[in-house]
């Protein structure tokens, strides 16, 4: 448990450093004390309890998530809070660990097979319901956390293709946004031909395809120049590609070469996906989300508007230098230049006051924690514990990656906290539950095979 | 429970590590490699508050105050602190319209809710007094003091210039300036901007994100105090300047008077002029526009920028060159038979006699100079006329013609002394060079363009018998010496021994029989020369240059009166009155009538076409003869000159 202590230490010090508002500092202390209490309680209770009541917890939290939509208090546009006395409770935070429990419980069923349609559907529902309810609260950031369960499923047998295609789709999404049409289609053609070449292992054929395609492109170009001078470059490219694909398919049928169809399918679906990106982007995403993505990709720069948070955050972190300005000496954070600095942008304080040494220490500590969690999860005898352990690691990783990524301008601004650092009782409790239930499970790993 | 998927742990761990490493690299570049963020952080927290110093004062040579500062008040608003207020009352006090106020408030809000912005510039002291009393009613507004120029004498607007807001170009050129700063735009205010402006002071204050002041930055270690601008004593004589402006009332033209022994400019009048106070304060833009649209072009500084032919005043230059080159002696005689005729070429004149050098100056004989100039160009010393011309041009330019003198006036123009290439291109066009086609240069006509300042400098050169000091307007700067170039003698290429030979003739100009005998001042020997500058657009311009007293000259002067026809008609009397005023401080009773006549003369009505000056480009010359004799000089050729309209070389504002 060595890492836990280090963790607690870092976390305490850091909180003092930003707390020029004693109120928040005081509150956070109470949260911490209560969290310790929760931790002890969690450790005392028998591990079977969590397994047995996994679905019950899940159900209770779902009810709370529904209830908050009607009875919750609105803060910053998100109706996500219950106010009880002076303290606010955010059920979405609790959703993470109960969903993790439920998923673990479902996967650990005796006859579970990942690639059955029913399993996938149930798992999809288990994570989909809380995610949708949280989106309904207008807190898309927290809902995105549930996407990380794909890593857990992967460990439990989900085909690697899901990860690969998910990644490919994400890359395509980004490329569509930052590249123009011609460049994108060109890239897809190049990738398709390359893929075909790799599959077929025949250099001659590839050269032939390239030559034919170039010839068709040339003819179409000349044709457009002579007959239809109004055509854009993209239009020319599309027509040429269409003709080429047609010829290619006939070639494939004649010679009965199967990869031809896969490559064409890859190309067409990629193209369709990238075309639909603009639809998703313009119509599904809300304006401020679009702006934040634009800002990160460098499509637009607006350091005083949309990019204000990130810009100020980068200034604060960047001004820290190697060793930082020293404890409590940060000017940027002390004078409130970085908005939300005690919650989502807590990492700025670390960066400004402790410099690169501080930030790298935090990142390395997180890595030790995460790798250690993976290691612990892997040594579990019960499938339930293992799945749960992966869930813990995945959720912590997602928070870590998104939160720090946004403060240094690598990820769009998504308002989720940095585990054990950010101010906020609900998230602290939630992470405490999350982590300590796993510790409890780990402690009793020798007891039974589940 | 070991399963085949156990290896997948490593891929997941690898994903974690890749992200962590990416972040570490990014943090390393942000925090260690890139220093720009550290600078931004300082800007973020520290707010610069600029203190504007008062500009230096300007005096004339006798200590009369010409320019001082008057307080002006900018009204600023911090939109966040605004509360509903009585707009009608506010508008009444400040004198802005409700629409203007609304627009300005919106602009301020668009700019920033937390930072103050100026909504009314340069409120007068009277309005400020009322506003100050009632300011408590207008939450969010406050007033900042600045200084504006004030001109108690209301004279010499062209010399003093004016002050205006800096434009983007000026900011780029000199990092001292920031948007909203004021700087000299023309005249003295521009030439001595560095001395007059002083130094802005800066206070660094710590502020938080809402711009609330938290105290001084590092106990004021980087603060600087504002330094008031240096005072400048000009060489102007305020009384003479005012007198000159009075004499030039109702006339377009200029007077430039120089003290020959120092090169100090005593008077520089460009008429019509305007009250320098017009270009100050809130209504400046409006006044500027009105002045710029005036067809008489009062903003145009004729003394520096109008380029007229020098007319007969130029004859001494040719005489001196002839003497220097050895083709002329004081006893050389040339005959005049109502002009100078060669073949079918005729240059008109009004004598039927034989002149020596001094007589030719006194009576301004065109024929004498036509023949003398021919002997310069056809001097057998040179292989051809063109080389003789180049030599001649070198002499001319050594008098300061055809080039800028290097004065401390901005916008000084070069004038025009055509190069031999110019004549080759437009006149000779490959044929053999001859003297006749360019013989009008003999009497200062043709393509020559001379500014009144150059003419005055020429008068000073003759007064000094061969050298000049670069004319300048500055006499003393508070803490500095005036530039050394103003204390060096500049000699012409003519030996100083040649000069006395022409002075006698210039004295005779003002004696009975001379062209300007009427302008004689009793008791003062004055040397002068009349001239008529050809004007293809209307009546010729009256020109006169002079210095006095003859032996130890204290003043050298040039006067141009546009459309004044002959030198003796307006320019000579005005010059003589200026000289008398300067030397004796009064006008003798016998000459009061002349003073009255000059002051009352109005050449601007009925409206004459706008004066034009020869421009360097697009000048075409045709060689036809003009046989109308006139009293002073007669144009030998009618010159069809396509001239550029005058270009106002003042930096436009905004």
Automatic annotation (TrEMBL), chain A:
<dbReference type="Pfam" id="PF01098">
    <property type="entry name" value="FTSW_RODA_SPOVE"/>
</dbReference>
<feature type="transmembrane region" description="Helical">
    <location>
        <begin position="260"/>
        <end position="281"/>
    </location>
</feature>
<dbReference type="GO" id="GO:0008360">
    <property type="term" value="P:regulation of cell shape"/>
</dbReference>
<protein>
    <recommendedName>
        <fullName>Cell wall polymerase</fullName>
    </recommendedName>
</protein>
<keyword id="KW-1133">Transmembrane helix</keyword>
<keyword id="KW-0812">Transmembrane</keyword>
<feature type="transmembrane region" description="Helical">
    <location>
        <begin position="387"/>
        <end position="414"/>
    </location>
</feature>
<dbReference type="GO" id="GO:0032153">
    <property type="term" value="C:cell division site"/>
</dbReference>
<dbReference type="GO" id="GO:0005886">
    <property type="term" value="C:plasma membrane"/>
</dbReference>
<dbReference type="GO" id="GO:0051301">
    <property type="term" value="P:cell division"/>
</dbReference>
<feature type="transmembrane region" description="Helical">
    <location>
        <begin position="52"/>
        <end position="72"/>
    </location>
</feature>
<dbReference type="GO" id="GO:0015648">
    <property type="term" value="F:lipid-linked peptidoglycan transporter activity"/>
</dbReference>
<keyword id="KW-0133">Cell shape</keyword>
<feature type="transmembrane region" description="Helical">
    <location>
        <begin position="143"/>
        <end position="176"/>
    </location>
</feature>
<keyword id="KW-0472">Membrane</keyword>
<feature type="transmembrane region" description="Helical">
    <location>
        <begin position="117"/>
        <end position="136"/>
    </location>
</feature>
<feature type="transmembrane region" description="Helical">
    <location>
        <begin position="420"/>
        <end position="441"/>
    </location>
</feature>
<dbReference type="InterPro" id="IPR018365">
    <property type="entry name" value="Cell_cycle_FtsW-rel_CS"/>
</dbReference>
<feature type="transmembrane region" description="Helical">
    <location>
        <begin position="28"/>
        <end position="45"/>
    </location>
</feature>
<feature type="transmembrane region" description="Helical">
    <location>
        <begin position="206"/>
        <end position="223"/>
    </location>
</feature>
<dbReference type="InterPro" id="IPR001182">
    <property type="entry name" value="FtsW/RodA"/>
</dbReference>
<feature type="transmembrane region" description="Helical">
    <location>
        <begin position="235"/>
        <end position="253"/>
    </location>
</feature>
UniProtKB/TrEMBL annotation, chain B:
<dbReference type="Pfam" id="PF00905">
    <property type="entry name" value="Transpeptidase"/>
</dbReference>
<keyword id="KW-0472">Membrane</keyword>
<dbReference type="GO" id="GO:0006508">
    <property type="term" value="P:proteolysis"/>
</dbReference>
<dbReference type="GO" id="GO:0071555">
    <property type="term" value="P:cell wall organization"/>
</dbReference>
<keyword id="KW-0133">Cell shape</keyword>
<feature type="region of interest" description="Disordered">
    <location>
        <begin position="604"/>
        <end position="654"/>
    </location>
</feature>
<dbReference type="InterPro" id="IPR017790">
    <property type="entry name" value="Penicillin-binding_protein_2"/>
</dbReference>
<feature type="compositionally biased region" description="Low complexity">
    <location>
        <begin position="616"/>
        <end position="625"/>
    </location>
</feature>
<protein>
    <submittedName>
        <fullName>Penicillin-binding protein 2</fullName>
    </submittedName>
</protein>
<feature type="compositionally biased region" description="Basic and acidic residues">
    <location>
        <begin position="628"/>
        <end position="645"/>
    </location>
</feature>
<dbReference type="InterPro" id="IPR036138">
    <property type="entry name" value="PBP_dimer_sf"/>
</dbReference>
<keyword id="KW-0645">Protease</keyword>
<keyword id="KW-0573">Peptidoglycan synthesis</keyword>
<keyword id="KW-0997">Cell inner membrane</keyword>
<dbReference type="InterPro" id="IPR050515">
    <property type="entry name" value="Beta-lactam/transpept"/>
</dbReference>
<keyword id="KW-0378">Hydrolase</keyword>
<feature type="domain" description="Penicillin-binding protein transpeptidase">
    <location>
        <begin position="253"/>
        <end position="576"/>
    </location>
</feature>
<keyword id="KW-1003">Cell membrane</keyword>
<feature type="domain" description="Penicillin-binding protein dimerisation">
    <location>
        <begin position="52"/>
        <end position="214"/>
    </location>
</feature>
<feature type="transmembrane region" description="Helical">
    <location>
        <begin position="9"/>
        <end position="28"/>
    </location>
</feature>
<dbReference type="GO" id="GO:0009002">
    <property type="term" value="F:serine-type D-Ala-D-Ala carboxypeptidase activity"/>
</dbReference>
<dbReference type="InterPro" id="IPR012338">
    <property type="entry name" value="Beta-lactam/transpept-like"/>
</dbReference>
């Amino acid at each position: 448990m060595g890492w836990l202590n280090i963790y607690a230490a870092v976390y305490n010090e850091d909180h003092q450093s930003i707390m020029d508002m004693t109120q928040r500092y005081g509150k956070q202390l109470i949260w911490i004390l209560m969290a310790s209490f929760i931790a002890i309680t969690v450790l005392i209770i028998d591990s079977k309890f969590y397994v047995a009541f996994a679905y019950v917890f899940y159900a209770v939290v779902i009810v709370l998530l529904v209830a908050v939509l009607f009875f919750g208090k609105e803060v910053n546009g998100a109706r996500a809070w219950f106010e009880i006395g002076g303290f606010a409770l955010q059920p979405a935070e609790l959703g993470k660990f109960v969903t993790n429990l439920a998923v673990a419980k479902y996967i650990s069923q005796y006859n579970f097979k990942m690639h059955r349609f029913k399993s996938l559907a149930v798992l999809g529902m288990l994570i989909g319901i809380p995610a949708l309810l949280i989106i309904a609260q207008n807190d898309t950031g927290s809902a995105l956390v549930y996407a990380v369960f794909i890593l857990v499923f992967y460990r439990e047998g989900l085909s690697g293709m899901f990860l690969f295609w998910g990644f490919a789709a994400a890359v395509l999404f980004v490329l569509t946004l930052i590249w123009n049409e011609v460049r994108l289609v060109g890239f897809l053609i190049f990738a398709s031909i390359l893929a075909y070449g790799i599959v077929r292992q025949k250099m001659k054929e590839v050269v032939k395809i390239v030559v034919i395609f170039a010839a068709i492109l040339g003819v179409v170009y000349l044709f457009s120049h002579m007959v239809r001078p109004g055509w854009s470059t993209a239009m020319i490219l599309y027509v040429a590609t269409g003709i080429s694909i047609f010829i290619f398919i006939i070639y494939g049928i004649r010679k009965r070469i199967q990869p031809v169809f896969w490559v064409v399918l890859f190309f067409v679906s990629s193209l369709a996906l990238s075309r639909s990106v603009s639809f998703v982007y313009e119509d599904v995403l809300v304006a401020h989300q679009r702006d934040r993505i634009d800002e990160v990709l460098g499509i637009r720069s607006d350091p005083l508007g949309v990019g204000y948070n990130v810009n100020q955050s980068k200034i604060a972190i960047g001004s820290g230098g190697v060793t930082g300005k020293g404890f409590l000496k940060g000017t940027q954070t002390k004078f409130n230049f970085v908005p939300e600095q005690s919650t989502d942008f807590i990492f700025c304080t670390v960066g400004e006051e402790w410099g690169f040494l501080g930030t790298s220490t935090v990142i390395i500590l997180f890595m030790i924690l995460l790798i250690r969690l993976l290691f612990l999860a892997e040594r579990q005898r019960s499938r339930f514990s293992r799945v749960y352990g992966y869930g813990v690691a995945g959720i912590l990783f997602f928070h870590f990656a998104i939160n720090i990524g946004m403060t240094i301008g690598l990820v769009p601004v998504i308002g989720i906290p940095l585990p054990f650092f950010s101010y906020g009782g609900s998230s602290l409790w939630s992470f405490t539950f999350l982590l300590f239930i796993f510790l409890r499970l780990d402690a009793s790993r020798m007891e039974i095979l589940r | 429970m070991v399963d085949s998927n156990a290896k997948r742990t490593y891929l997941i761990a690898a994903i974690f590590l890749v992200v962590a490493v990416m972040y570490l690299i990014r943090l390393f570049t942000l925090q260690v490699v890139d220093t720009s963020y550290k600078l931004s952080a300082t800007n973020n927290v520290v707010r610069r508050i600029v203190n504007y110093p008062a500009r230096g004062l300007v005096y004339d040579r006798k200590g009369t105050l010409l320019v001082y500062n008057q307080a002006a008040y900018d009204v600023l608003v911090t939109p966040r602190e605004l509360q509903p207020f009585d707009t009608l009352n506010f508008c009444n006090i400040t004198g802005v319209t409700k629409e203007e106020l609304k627009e300005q408030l919106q602009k301020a809000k668009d700019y920033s809710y937390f930072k103050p912005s100026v909504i009314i510039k340069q409120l007068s002291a009277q309005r400020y007094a009322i506003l100050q009393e009632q300011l408590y009613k207008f939450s969010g507004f406050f007033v900042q003091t600045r200084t504006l120029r004030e001109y108690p004498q209301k004279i010499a607007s062209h010399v003093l210039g004016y002050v205006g807001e800096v434009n983007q170009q000026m900011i780029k050129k000199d990092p001292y300036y920031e948007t909203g700063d004021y700087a000299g735009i023309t005249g003295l205010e521009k030439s001595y901007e560095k001395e007059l402006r002083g130094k802005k002071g800066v206070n660094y204050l710590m502020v938080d994100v809402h711009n609330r002041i938290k105290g001084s930055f590092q106990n004021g270690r980087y603060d600087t105090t504002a330094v008031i601008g240096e005072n400048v004593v000009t060489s102007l004589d305020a009384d003479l300047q005012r007198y000159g402006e009075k004499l030039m009332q109702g006339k377009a033209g200029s007077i430039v008077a120089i003290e020959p022994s120092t090169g100090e400019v005593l008077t520089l009048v460009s008429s019509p002029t305007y009250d320098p106070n017009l270009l100050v304060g809130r209504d400046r833009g409006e006044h500027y526009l009105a002045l710029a649209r005036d067809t008489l072009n009062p903003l145009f500084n004729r003394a520096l920028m109008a380029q007229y032919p020098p007319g007969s005043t130029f004859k001494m230059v040719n005489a001196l060159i002839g003497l220097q080159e050895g083709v002329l002696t004081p006893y050389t005689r040339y005959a005049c038979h109502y002009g100078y005729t060669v073949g079918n070429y005729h240059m008109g004149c009004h004598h039927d006699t034989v002149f020596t050098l001094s007589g030719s100056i006194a009576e301004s004989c065109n024929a004498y100079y036509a023949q003398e100039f021919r002997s310069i160009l056809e001097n057998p010393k040179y292989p051809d006329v063109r080389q003789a011309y180049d030599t001649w041009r070198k002499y001319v330019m050594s008098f300061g013609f055809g080039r800028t003198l290097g004065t401390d006036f901005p916008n000084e123009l070069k004038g025009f002394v055509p190069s031999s290439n110019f004549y080759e291109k437009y006149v000779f066009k490959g044929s053999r060079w001859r003297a006749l086609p360019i013989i009008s240069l003999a009497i200062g006509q043709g393509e020559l363009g001379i500014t009144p300042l150059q003419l005055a400098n020429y008068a000073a050169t003759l007064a000094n018998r061969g050298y000049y000091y670069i004319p300048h307007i500055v006499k003393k700067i508070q803490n500095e010496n005036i530039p050394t170039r103003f204390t060096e003698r500049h000699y012409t290429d003519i030996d100083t021994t040649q000069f006395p030979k022409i002075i006698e003739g210039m004295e005779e100009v003002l004696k009975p029989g001379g062209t300007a005998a009427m302008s004689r001042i009793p008791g003062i020997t004055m040397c002068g020369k009349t001239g008529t500058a050809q004007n293809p657009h209307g009546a010729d311009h009256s020109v006169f240059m002079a210095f006095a007293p003859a032996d130890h000259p204290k003043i050298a002067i040039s006067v141009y009166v546009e459309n004044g026809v002959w030198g003796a008609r307006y320019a000579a009397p005005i010059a003589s009155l200026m000289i008398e005023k300067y030397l004796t401080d009064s006008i003798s009773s016998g000459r009061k009538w002349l003073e009255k006549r000059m002051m009352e003369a109005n050449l601007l009505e009925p409206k004459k076409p706008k004066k034009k000056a020869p421009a360097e480009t697009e000048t075409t010359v045709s060689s036809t003869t003009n046989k109308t004799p006139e009293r002073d000089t007669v144009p030998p050729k009618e010159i069809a000159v396509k001239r550029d309209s005058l270009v106002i070389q003042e930096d436009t504002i905004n």
